Amino acid sequence: MNETFLQACRGEKTDYTPVWMMRQAGRYLPEYQKVRGTIPFLELCKHPELCVEVTLQPLRRFAMDAAILFSDILIPIEAMGAELSFHEGQGPIIANPCRDAETVEQLKIADPEQDLPFVQETVRLLRSELDVPLIGFAGAPFTCATYLIEGGSSKFFYETKKLMFTQPGLFHRLMDKISETVIRALKAQAKAGAQALQLFDTWAGILAPCDFEIFALPYVQRIFRKLRDLNVPLIYFANNGATLLDMSARAGAHVIGIDWRTDIGDAIGKAGRLAVQGNLDPLALLLPQEELKERIGRLLGGARDACGHIFNLGHGIHQLTPPDQVRLAVDFVHELSAR
Amino acid sequence: MNETFLQACRGEKTDYTPVWMMRQAGRYLPEYQKVRGTIPFLELCKHPELCVEVTLQPLRRFAMDAAILFSDILIPIEAMGAELSFHEGQGPIIANPCRDAETVEQLKIADPEQDLPFVQETVRLLRSELDVPLIGFAGAPFTCATYLIEGGSSKFFYETKKLMFTQPGLFHRLMDKISETVIRALKAQAKAGAQALQLFDTWAGILAPCDFEIFALPYVQRIFRKLRDLNVPLIYFANNGATLLDMSARAGAHVIGIDWRTDIGDAIGKAGRLAVQGNLDPLALLLPQEELKERIGRLLGGARDACGHIFNLGHGIHQLTPPDQVRLAVDFVHELSAR
Q1: How confident is the model at residue B339, as a pLDDT?
Q2: Residue A36 falls in the annotated catalytic set
Q3: What is the dotted CATH code of the domain comprising B4-338?
Q4: Would you say the pTM of this structure is higher than 0.95?
Q5: In CA terms, which of A40, A64, A70, B32 is 20 to 30 Å from B239?
Q6: Do the beta carbons of residue A147 and residue A77 sit within 8 Å?
Q7: Which of A146, A149, A243 to mutate to test the interface with B (most CBs of B within 10 A)?
Q8: ipTM for the predicted complex
Q9: In whole angstroms, how far apart are CA A250 and each of A29, A128, A203, B297?
Q10: Domain residue limits, chain A
């Protein structure tokens, strides 16, 4: 078992900088596209054997130091009662958006054993196949709330902020329910064998810091507090969260994920004694090889003083990324950091 | 003539904090919708009398301390040869995206006198009507380049970064041409009577700081250097630019616009001796009156130590904003800051 990733999460000294990439199991891989050609995305997420297959695909090609469970941040949200569907090129749609007391009350707190058995089954199957750690994950409550309220993705998040600003009590009630679902889902993943847990806060960055502090951070803190006893590394990734970093560092995670907009040296200053994960611009993987290596070199240099660094992208890998560039990046991180 | 806005731009002491709002002439006003019902957006931008009308509409309702020319950041780009159109709810489309040497060479540097006479005519007509300063504007080169390269708006800006990373010489050539066009367009606006000039860098925030420094900042600096002699305040707004603020402060502008993600106190620390403009979350205008006042109070308090503060939103006003909330905000800024 290669424990480099877990060591870095714990801030221990490692032989080299471990690497994984957000969405490493995804559309940039022809073998993933092949599986997806046979089954719609949402069905794939509920099919343990195929989830195992696509989780393993990048590990067969690249020397990744961690695997991440193939699933979607909205899977537990569907289990709460959201009528979820995915449409090619459109992102998720929730047919019954949640904007009033009645629809919030109708949401149930999901029971992972009953509602999400396929997730735990995927985790169990993966653990018997993997020789690197397996990361479980969920969407952070604020991000899940935006999908529930908007009924999908959004440009301005008008409905979310309208609810937040005009009915804060109801917004908090919704966040309570989502948080409890996320806690249960992540505990079940850990119980099934997930060796680290990441909260993805994809849309945290649409909030002013003063609103993040009131409407999002307390729920992330609650979740991590409840997961702390599991003794697995906890990772918090607040996308586009440069101005939220001070607060993210107080979220209760062991590792702070950094998007590509922030200089990693600056992020480390704010992360204090936490490990950091990141943060190459996913599209910098398009750079010619020498420039890509140079940029990776600067990133590793910038992360020199981190209390643990896990190399990652600053966001999910883009579907048009050439797999050979991914290999180059992974191998070069290993090579340079091992010197 | 109410010069409060210009005084704040110059860092002079003012009797109260001046206010204007990005997109203050826009769809949240029924009288604007009425005009738009009679004419497509792009035609409206080329019709001086109607541009004057919609520019004045918010000033009839609210005690704004500045007017901003009604136009679009892509108007000079169309004059370069982009086949521009706007489709309801879709944003701009450029039918001939610019991704290779041939299409870049075909772009011409626009001549405002010949290609954009309607802009200068609008400015001239407005000056004879206004008793507050008139702001002229253009899109910053990087933002204009994203539209030209993507052929419209984008989620990941794959084509832009691909060009930037794989053909940097061609990317810089494109930026050269756009910058020269922007310089000419803004000089013509100032000559026609614009009393301040703002560069909107809507998409600067998709760049890692190291890329902003190489691919975007030098062009903004060049433009401001060429405009410095006009002796009008120059404003730079890099949207979602929290991690670019140190560099934005070196762009050569007199005023730095701040989006709502950054605490204004932090921004002021980085703006140094420049004035700041911002930065209420546009959707915070949905807050109940007392909470809205409290938030404005905190914002004004946070801006206390600025070398000049112009109250504004942190982005364009949302089309579903109740006009009465805009009035409340404008009047309360004036009332509280005059005490």
Answers
A1: 78
A2: yes
A3: 3.20.20.210
A4: yes
A5: B32
A6: yes
A7: A243
A8: 0.96
A9: 36, 34, 18, 27
A10: 4-338
